[in-house]
From TrEMBL:
Organism expressing this protein natively: Planctopirus hydrillae
The keyword Kinase belongs to this UniProt entry's keyword annotation: yes
A GO term from the CC aspect: cytosol
Protein name as it appears in the record: Phosphoglycerate kinase
Assembly with partners or alone: Monomer.
Length: 400
């Protein structure tokens, strides 16, 4: 897929309306604790500024239920504006609304080589439904539309689809982050160097059934970890003790049986489990063979034998996609399985793509993020791309 990027359009003296994903974590004092989603957007913003354009930024932050930023300050993008000002070193203005009087006045006053960040688009009820009264006003703010919000590319909300459609024949391009994400998550898996290994973890097999199905059709091996492994174990008649199983379990067990039939030898399951008798790091622990977990114990991580088995498969791979941790990586010692997989990925000479969400958090926690090929900024979007889905927000962008 070859879409025009922000580098392909003339921005001199023009306003670029850019959708970014500034959905960053904030602590109780409204201080940004991880600004990666902001720094990832800088190349696209700076490309416009360096060429004499001006940038109007849109983003969401969390899921505010109300429409009053003052009453719901934890969802305001004001801290993001302050961080952007520090990083860019140019005037960064902040509008207290999205399509109201303050936004309209600041759009008109914005000068070339300056930036304006609009307040959280989800404070406006028109965003979710893509209401014409809302998207039509936003569409007047820019001469060029740029989508650099990969984390929400799988959504069809107002700022993602409604606004660019309302901009008619004005240029619609992707930013460098979206270009990079699509290159790795789409292009790399469409023609991978082999062996191609996928590692899929997390809690529910229900959430990743279509991802696993698609990966089984294109990968050489799919490794399963995390709590979803217990559905497979139970489906095979194993004992899983107090380990997680969705309630009611029937649908998950049926899905697991279906995947076992489809996957055959491609689908690799844990052979042992690191268990505890309580959800805390200092609980009583044991290593149990897969399907042999005592009834008063719960599986929290893949065991050492599985770690070694998976590491050997991963180290021999030429392309790796990883989505979902192997266990409770936030709580030592049950981080060992996820850490072993992360270290094996780094030790390989494969093209390695970390599919956002908890996998991205884990590899950053382990200090290994700069040693893999690509860490996605979008958990849900990367999952849907691995399913093989197309995104309306990307499809509508101009072709090269």
């Amino acid at each position: 897929m070859a879409k025009k990027t922000i580098a392909d359009v003339d921005v001199q003296g023009k306003a670029v309306l850019m959708r970014c994903d500034f959905n960053v974590p904030l602590d109780d004092n409204l201080v940004i604790t991880d600004d990666r989603r902001i720094t990832e957007a800088l190349p696209s913003i700076e490309s416009v500024l360096k060429r004499g354009g001006r940038v109007i930024l849109m983003s969401h932050l969390g899921r505010p239920e109300g429409v009053d930023p003052a009453a719901d300050a934890k969802y305001s993008l004001k801290p993001v504006a302050a961080r952007l000002k520090e990083l860019l070193g140019v005037p960064v203005h902040f509008a207290s609304d999205t399509v109201g009087a303050d936004a309209e006045a600041k759009v008109k006053a914005l000068k070339n080589n300056e930036v304006l960040l609009l307040e959280n688009v989800r404070f406006n009820k028109g965003e979710k439904k893509g209401e014409s009264s809302y998207v039509n006003i936003l569409a007047t703010f820019g001469d060029i539309y740029c989508n650099d919000a990969f984390g929400t590319c799988h959504r069809s909300e107002g700022s993602m689809v409604g606004v660019p459609n309302a901009m008619g024949n004005k240029p619609k391009v992707c930013g460098f982050l979206v270009e990079k994400e699509i290159k790795f998550l789409s292009d790399a898996i469409s023609n991978p160097a082999r062996p191609f290994v996928a590692i899929v973890g997390g809690k529910k097999v229900d959430d990743k059934i279509n991802v696993i199905k698609n990966l089984l059709s294109i990968c050489d091996t799919v490794l399963i970890g995390g709590a979803m492994a217990f559905a497979f174990s139970k489906a095979q008649g194993g004992q899983i003790g107090k380990s997680y199983l969705p309630n009611p379990p029937e649908a998950s067990l049926a899905l697991a049986k279906e995947l076992l039939t489809i996957g055959g030898e491609k689908l690799q399951l844990p052979v042992d489990t690191h268990c505890g008798d309580a959800f805390k790091g200092d609980c009583n622990k044991m290593i149990a063979k897969a399907g042999q977990i005592p009834e008063n114990f719960e599986g929290f991580d893949i065991g050492p034998e599985t770690q070694q088995k998976y590491a050997e498969i991963v180290k021999a791979a030429k392309t790796i996609v990883w989505n979902g941790p192997m266990g409770v990586f936030e709580m030592p010692p049950f981080d060992a399985g996820t850490r072993a997989v992360a270290e094996a990925i780094v030790a390989s000479d494969a093209t390695s793509i970390i599919g956002g969400g908890d996998s991205a958090s884990a590899i950053q926690q382990f200090g290994l993020a700069d040693q893999v090929t690509h860490v996605s900024t979008g958990g849900g979007a990367s999952l849907e791309m691995l399913e093989g889905k197309k995104f309306a927000a990307v499809e509508l962008l101009d072709e090269k």
